[in-house]
Amino acid sequence: MNKHGGYFGKDRDSAADLSANINPLGPPKGVVELIKSMAGGISMYPEIDGISARTSLEKALGTGDGSTILGNGAVELIYLFARAIRPKNVLIVQPTFNEYKRAFEMYGSNVESFLCTEENCFRPNMYALAKRVESGSHEVVVICNPNNPTGVFTEAKDFKPLLDGLAKNRGILFADESFIDYSLGESLIGNIENHDVFILRSMTKFYSLAGLRIGYGVGHRSIIEKMEKFKEPWTVNAFALEALPLMMADGEYRKKTLDFYKYEKEYMLESLSGVKGLDPVESRSNFILCRVEGNRAKGLDEHLKKRGVYIRTCEDFYGIGDGYIRVAVKKRDYTDRFISAAIEYFDQC
Amino acid sequence: MNKHGGYFGKDRDSAADLSANINPLGPPKGVVELIKSMAGGISMYPEIDGISARTSLEKALGTGDGSTILGNGAVELIYLFARAIRPKNVLIVQPTFNEYKRAFEMYGSNVESFLCTEENCFRPNMYALAKRVESGSHEVVVICNPNNPTGVFTEAKDFKPLLDGLAKNRGILFADESFIDYSLGESLIGNIENHDVFILRSMTKFYSLAGLRIGYGVGHRSIIEKMEKFKEPWTVNAFALEALPLMMADGEYRKKTLDFYKYEKEYMLESLSGVKGLDPVESRSNFILCRVEGNRAKGLDEHLKKRGVYIRTCEDFYGIGDGYIRVAVKKRDYTDRFISAAIEYFDQC
């Protein structure tokens, strides 16, 4: 199971939590008001398949009827995809979010890795990836874009060889775009009509609603249909179903969020350059992977914890090891607390 | 997929919905206040495995550490059990909630039925059931107690032959006690230490929180451990995790609810006796299965719908057919609207 998704200790309110990639601006006001207004009426079952929310989502995305599926967070859909498609062979672009491997193995898939290395700044060579797919027998290729925890983003146009390669084998591209809102890049959503593509989206990171559990998938109708057969009923709670259309319509919140990240990510990067033991990897997401000099991620983490600063160590990500940490871009005071504690650590060593 | 869990039409606010078995008193006040107070802070991930809520639950139930597991509604745990245990052969006491069959078949189990018949008022003969288990090779027996949709309750002491029979084959008893709070009967929870028993509980029916999604399982530690291996992360939302201990502690709400049902169920039964086309089955739950004269459930349902009254027809329950409806005990005005519309229907015929 994934290591954590936020800090839960006794000092949780006073801690500077840079471990979870949640928008620190907090949830959209409209959603908070909605939840309060719905609280007294929570007696009713949520709509069994969330059809009203899906219809509204399909309109907002401009995709056709039956092109979406909702999840109790994006994670439900990773597991649902794995058990509905049940591919014999899966290729996962690594290092990445470790629920993919667990999900596919849980349902009997043979999981191979396409490893992006430190030497190439964790950037996937899309031609090599396409070649591997063409010569293999992978029914599914998983890529997270931007990737977690590396922050690497691959442009939509660069997916062409991979899509062509997959088409030859009738394979499916599973693209996790949970962090795409931050990337300012183009989505692969334009490919769902003509290719076997499934795109995963999370509403809870960008909209700061991780406790609520809401994500969605959008894909080729044949994939969505297969997933529907295995979908469990009532998985998305009533608050999440009602909140989804509100979020899709809230352009102001999106703008405010992107403005915030623009400045605070720059600030974090500048501050990181003042820490002699840390080396940031270029990121198109709302978090930054940092190489820790001398593989001292564990020591740094312990030092930070004592000062109430929580980060994500990366030893459980396939192909990273203990030389890296991931820090989420948060409000300036958290960044400052992290930076000064990190400087302190490397000064001591 | 289950037919429905509440009515979702355009006139949902003015409709008399007797289709879903939800406590009409509405959610406990403390939980509503909790949700409102948490709404602004929903940014954080729920605890990945809900360990704080589980610990509190285990204390309240008086069961040992590691004896419980939480679900995004009770339904999550039906599917989780099926994929974690993956029994070759399952015996389901029917007619009952139809997610069991779907869940086990989804994961490749061979599902057999132990059918309780109309002739025996849908009451299971526990000796015959034990005999069937002893002579068969069922790794799991599923029984819902009180049963949905029949309302039949089997006393804890009457499970002894079945438990003995299962023990011989090292089989597991899966007892769905989602409606046991209404029955005033003894739970099978006392058996989890010494038998392979898994008990399912729903918090959302009795506590009127179906939109929130919270249920739990309690069972022999070896079963819970197996389920943990297949548990998906963050399935239970943050509101549900915080609400659970509040509900367990709210004795006042429980008393108020049981008082309400005592009188309103009696009222409904008396009123039903005035409808010449309906014949209620004795129920130990908060709903009543009624035989409809001349198998006219569908006609009655259509008549009621036109008058804004929604009930549960039962044609999709295995072994019932179209001769029955299920009505939930609700507030008096709903009961009265149902009864007078039903009288009208049978007068017309």
From TrEMBL, chains A, B:
This is Aminotransferase. GO terms for molecular function: lyase activity; pyridoxal phosphate binding; transaminase activity. PROSITE patterns: AA_TRANSFER_CLASS_1. Its cofactor is pyridoxal 5'-phosphate. Transmembrane segments: none annotated. It is an enzyme of class 2 (transferase). It holds the Pfam family Aminotran_1_2. Belongs to the class-I pyridoxal-phosphate-dependent aminotransferase family. The keyword Cell division does not apply. It comes from Peptoclostridium litorale DSM 5388. Its EC number is 2.6.1.-. InterPro entries: Aminotransferase_I/II_large, NHTrfase_class1_PyrdxlP-BS, PyrdxlP-dep_Trfase, PyrdxlP-dep_Trfase_major, PyrdxlP-dep_Trfase_small. The keyword Lyase applies. Residues 17-339 form the Aminotransferase class I/classII large domain. Keywords: Aminotransferase, Lyase, Pyridoxal phosphate, Transferase. It comes from the Bacteria. Gene3D superfamilies: Aspartate Aminotransferase, domain 1, Type I PLP-dependent aspartate aminotransferase-like (Major domain).
